[in-house]
Structures
1.
Amino acid sequence: RGGAFGELARQKKAEKAGGGGVGGDEGTAAAAAAPRAATAVKSAPKGSKGAFGDLMAMGRRAIDPSAPGAALPDGRIPLSVHTVTPTLPVPANIPRPSYADTGKPPAWNDSYQLAKTQAHKDRMRAAGALAAKVRDAAGAMVKPGVTTDEIDRFVHQMIIDAGAYPSPLNYGNFPKSVCTSVNECICHGIPDMRPLVDGDIVNIDVTVYLDGVHGDTSFTFYCGDVSDEARDLVRTTRRALEEAIHTIKPGSKLSEIGRRIQQVADEKKYGVVENYVGHGVGETFHSGPTVFHMANSQPGVIEKDMTFTVEPMLTLTGRIAERTWPDKWTVVTADAGITAQFEHTLLVTDDGVEILTPYTWEC
């Protein structure tokens, strides 16, 4: 899900903050987001030494993820550019979305996606179930020494073996079949040849296109022995998603989702990422509504039969400034603080919501 989708979310926030008639929490958050996202750290001369040199090296890495430097204060080595292997082929007989061959996503549509017929609901359930099955099988691979490229190959094969298309592949020219976001990567991490390290956390974001509809889900997995603070972040992010889902029913406000997530995050003084959002999903990969995860005054209400995602991303340090790598996809925290995400595809029922991508893992 491309940088273009994140840019759309930023534009929508800016429009609402700039006299579009929507004020309150969302307008304040949108106005505040720009200076945070624009924060930059100037690099020092290459010869800097000692503690000051380490600080400047961290600054260089915040701007250039491939810049060398000492380990972070928690002992982690910051993410850097690794080899990305060639895109994997999809058999010609597998039905594919419109962008699969062109790389061009369809034009954004603000309209909700509704599964009104039983047949449509069943297709959404099947796509969600497959996405969840692939997500959990991929998660079982997470251990020290495994590369995210290996996870991508596994995910790709499992999806095409099921007669489905891996939705991220060539969406806006994304080169892989799954997003794998490690440690400080907020989202859209491109699988590569970096081996996972003991103590990493990794979000695996799977979307499948099956029988004409997309099912979209993610889960943040532990790699080996993970720190207590990382576990607390992961567990709290999952709880934020689950408590937000409890607010959803026909007639409820879209803004209730972000309000509840913000409340859960504030309990731990975690940051809530603003520029990447939930969205409608179904026959189209991304559509309205734009679901903000922070406290906001977004207009709009939940409708019966809506299919959409909620996918909060929380940051350990409480700061949400971000950097996008030169690959135009990989989004990392500017301060290299770790981040976690969870995502479900949802179907709104008569009096609540059905989770189409249920979890089987504990965290």
2.
Amino acid sequence: QTAFWLVAVVCVANVSISSAGGVEGSDGVPAHVDGTPLPQPARLVAIGDIHGDMQALKGALQLAGVLHSKRDQWTGGRTVVVQVGDQLDRGDDELAILALIRKLQKQAQQAGGAFHVLFGNHEHLASTTQGFRYATEGTYRHFAEWEDVCRDKSRLSAKEYDLHHCALYHGPLACPAQDFQCHKTVQRVPKEMRPRFHALYPGGCIAKELLAKERAAVLIVGDTLFVHAGLAFEHLSHHSRAEDAIRELNLEMSLYFSGQIPQVSERTSEVVWTRNYGQVVNERNCYELQRTLAALPGNVSRIVVGHTIQPSHITSACNGAAWRIDIGMSRGTYGTRPQVLEILPGGRVKVIKSGTAGRMGLGRLKQVATAVIAQLQLVKNWFTRPAPTYEL
């Protein structure tokens, strides 16, 4: 099955590679999927999973010193930021987060910096017919309002257009004509859940115009490898050059979200779903990691992942070769105070923490209680809604 999908990716890429989106490189490949390492910046910052919580995203960006404290303005200059995926699910602010990230990406580029964003397993999950489980009532409501307001952009003022994130809307929202699975799913879910499903489904306006064009599965910046969940030697070994393997992984995800292939291969899905580096790491994991890093172009010395929540603070393993930066910042998970990872030239790595991160004071207890309540509400919603049999 894996071999079949890899052949399919190559075939589609040969005829429509530029339609995956993004700025094209010299060989016609979209720049965001190119496996070539990006240069080491003077300052590199990594941010963990956000999960629909604008407060968590802004808190992390401000802690990193790249977002103005009172307005949505990039203040990072030439700093390069990498967010390691999972912008979606568990929180109400998905649309606002996607719009803010896009805005800051443009501002960062103008300032000589960059804001790179990766695919996470929840972006993948939200694109499938199983993508309802972790979405909140608030996010469904926001997507429904978004479609209602942005359907006729011509009647909106510039302020209304920005307020409702209409730059993300390209309608009408509907299933691809011949996609039986999509039509079958839409018929089974409540009306208010459909706009989000349509927008994030492969070929939908956000999936095609934003995720496919502005996200990557694997990214190398300087001496650091970034991926949502993990990368193994087996992901690279089927190509003579690791750059080509990374390019293939990225391109396959882009083609999937743009609706040009029906699913991603098991090999590609592993980079956003594996738990090999997030949980207990043993000597074999570390050996495999060193083997993987050695196969990469340049002098890559560490991997940075999200995906698996670390208790209270960013952690490292394998003598600093693996950094796990998902600390559950979203109030839809643990509501942990923001922390970010700073990587400087010469291999200097530093965890930047909020003032009382990890302390179980009254504020922290309130955050944990809020997160627990949110999770219980999700469970309640899941069991009380008319539940269709979702299929891939």
3.
Amino acid sequence: MERLDSKRAVKKQFLTSKVLGSFEPAAKYSFEGSVNSIDYSDDGDFLVASADDDSVCLYDCHTAQLKAKVFCKRNGASVARFTHHSKAILCASRDAKGPNGSFSHNVHYLSLHDNRYLRSFKGHKKEVTQIAMHPSNDTFMTGGQDRTVRMWDLRDHKPHGLLEANDAPAISYDPQGLIMAISVSHNQMSLYDCRTYKKGPFATLLLKTEGPHSQLKYIKFTPDSNYFLASFTSGPHMLFDAFEGERKAVYKSDGLGQDSVAFEPSISPDGQFLISGTTKGLRAWEVTTGSLLQTSSWDKSSSSSGGRSSSKSSTSSSSSAVGAVSTLACWNPRTLMFASSVDRKLLFWLPKILPK
């Protein structure tokens, strides 16, 4: 296994549009099913990916080597999210049947170090679609197709709270862990104080969207907590003021928000740039202006070898498959690196041009 060039995975550097445009796939893994979630550990040293083949894979971000692979055949695997331990994750069931033959929709606390379930969190009546870990403690919240948000603690299998919504909710904590943001309808978002959420929201924002049937799917705060990104099942991504709800920027591109497909975006750790998949490939924008950046080279997002299994990697920058549908994108929180998915492929991206 060839190591990634450590000089390209630099930390705490200035990201520019020129550097961003030079990113290219440095390693690629293939799965037997579509990749359904990507997440980085708090320290940026590891990445976890789950797929529709019921696998959960842990990768070392410094070498792009597969460190652990777990098959969750009984419960399935989706929405894999790191806890504050780099070898422990939360993972939602997918098409899992309980002992009485009915489908269970649980969240599992899984140790990837020794392939062991530490705890299961039961309560949702339908599929769990989102998991959000609190930034600084062991509490987390989940949102599901049963139109509920449930509050949990890693140390207790019982939920500590429940909130209801009119749709499958989008959920997020602000980076300081003071505020919970929860969508309550297709274009409304409520803000709660994490310490007193049972008293109700301290603000409910009505979001100006583009499309009457557009459902709010993802919420992402900027690093300074002053704004949040809203992604919908149709139409472009949008940036809103976190205090007033005023729309600040719109992120448009061909292939974004079409056919009721929601793409999960990611904001760079410095808050400057946004990346997102589209039906035409991976795209990038300036956060403050909404300007679409020139990243045409990104369309060549898979190596000519076609990829290998999820236990081996291809580390070639030669490319093909222009304009492939990219559904997931995720920035590394500590290192100049991001990851994306293209159907059954997971790609690690590094810059060809190093920032000065």
4.
Amino acid sequence: IISTPGSRILSYAPTKITTMGKGGQSVQTSSRNEIKTGKDGHWVSPYNPLDPKAPKLPSKGEIKAVIPKECFERSYLHSMYFVARDTVMAAGCVYIAHQTLSTDVPADLASVDALKWFLGWNTYAFWMGCILTGHWVLAHECGHGAFSPSQTFNDFWGFIMHQAVLVPYFAWQYTHAKHHRRTNNTMDGESHVPNTKEEMGLKNGVERHGGYAAIHEAIGDGPFAMLQVIAHLVIGWPLYLLGLASTGRLGNDGKPLDGDIIDHYRPWSKMFPAKVRAKIALSSIGVIASWVGLYFVAQEYGVLPVTLWYMGPLLWNQAWLVLYTWLQHNDPSVPQYGPDEWTWVKGALSTIDRPYGIFDFFHHKIGSTHVAHHLFHEMPFYKADVATAAIKAYLEPKGLYNYDPTPWYKAMWRVAKTCHYIDELNGIQYYKSLEDIPMSKDLKKD
């Protein structure tokens, strides 16, 4: 593992950790991994491509050779079992809510009953959204061809499950495949493509002249980080689908967009080549039909019941899916690559595995086995544990496996505070933070 200035290595053995840093301090604990940390104690990626001693990257074929072949075997029954499991859980959640909650707003909003009503529906929304994210992940598997040996079977079930949560299945299938093809590419990447310092409102790298840089100065570090969290988790997904945030900088023809919006709904959007336009239209028709259905249900039963039963869980579902993509590829120590430096292997190995506790069960371990998923998206998720163990055993000794043990909610807060922009689009770039930029008033004093 590479140790760069300002970092330290936590060498994990079964019975102790030896913390090597300035002064040769050591502490005792128990684990089996090796973790590199910075001066602030936060996890740091072991791979630094700027280090002259950086290891040579293996090929995709060399990595695949260490994974048991059975990890790539797809099963109709195994996959459909998880569809049934998640659907039963969703039905159970609805049943419990139906038996214990009312859609009628309590007469006295200051009463204990009103508090119970509010907490009850929010609890339902959280857990139902959590369960529906499992369906979303299964549809995501369908899009990758990892659900079964038949892509027709995959598309049938993927379309149903994604339309149920208002996702344009074929459009997202296409753009998500691009996300895998161009991971951490500053120009041609897809979803969570980093902003440059100019796009953040910085001039000459230190002068704030508008945009997010000005907002950060106006509200401060903590509130700006909270704004990042809210923007990502609450409105990030619809903005992305509308082409208003987080998309790449190039159209499907490889040419700069020059201000054109690339949304997921128009078949003629520059996001898509002509050969997939019919599928894009089908996805958009499906989403429109879902919204029309919701409209008629609201007409029949009222807007509030639809909001409580469906829109609340949908918001949590969207928050989870954005969270995963945000955290699995972003950290101030993980590189972003310009077109002159990017390769597929570099991008794939910039993925980070993280622990998600109980949510791994609901979300099919999409976040804790994400490195394996990005290397081999055609692999079914229920084999990803075995594949991850093999990949880790091969890559970790080389200093090429990213595993951040930080709890996901702490990692989210750190990314919100530190991953704001990159300097430019070419070369090897690392995220920088607006918190490190002087305030305008301080510059004037100087």
